[in-house]
Amino acid sequence: xxxxxxxxxxxxxxxxxxxxxxxxxxxxxxxxxxxxxxxxxxxxxxxxxxxxxxxxxxxxxxxxxxxxxxxxxxxxxxxxxxxxxxxxxxxxxxxxxxxxxxxxxxxxxxxxxxxxxxxxxxxxxxxxxxxxxxxxxxxxxxxxxxxxxxxxxxxxxxxxxxxxxxxxxxxxxxxxxxxxxxxxxxxxxxxxxxxxxxxxxxxxxxxxxxxxxxxxxxxxxxxxxxxxxxxxxxxxxxxxxxxxxxxxxxxxxxxxxxxxxxxxxxxxxxxxxxxxxxxxxxxxxxxx
Length: 288
Prior knowledge:
Elements: E1 8-12, E2 17-21, H1 23-79, H2 81-87, E3 93-94, E4 100-101, H3 104-107, E5 125-128, E6 131-134, H4 138-150, E7 157-159, H5 164-182, H6 186-196, E8 210-213, H7 224-232, E9 238-242, H8 247-250, E10 255-261, H9 264-273, H10 277-287
Antiparallel strand pairs: 1-2, 3-4, 5-6, 7-8, 8-10, 9-10
Helix pairs in contact: 1-2, 5-6
């Protein structure tokens, strides 16, 4: 009696040779095919994950970076050479405290009666501590405010960057006030107003490097906040923009609520020499 054959034979080729394929080998072949299919699926999934990751990186980091670069370049080209020194925020070096260190054409750039700017001068500003400031000084300002907070003081600001048009409005308001309250003629009112509120194009607030502390200028000099600033702000690169007894240099009467960034090195030197910004710049030019 013939036994039933459970194995499979397959005829291949003209010679009709039989090739015996065992059940185990058939199972192994199927498993190998499944593994290949799974590997392909895994490779497709990995490729999709990598593509999504690259897309997110480009969208979240590269696109904003190049947009900012293009914006800065366009702003510089449109507004001339005087603006380009401040509108492009170069990668700075840092001092031992982690403060940025900039060249003098940034740190000591000044707008005043002797170095006026027109309405086309608009620095590259960012928001910091509730006001707009020149982008170079944002990190130093944040460190200054944090240091004051650690000592129990809340430094707040009523103004940062002031545009040419806004400064023009502030000046004319002051002129009108002097005429109405003190009965001054237009010429006298404009002369007096200029000592307290610089004319448009002559205010260092337009540079974006200055801030006005939210306080009463009449009493601020006797406050704890003013005392703290006098003793500490130089470490963070700030000085009083309009100190006492410097009207002949600054063109403005004393106003300790206005502080100005010059960099920690210059701030230290200015304090040691008891000089205001205009006086210090003149001193440096004489040193060669």
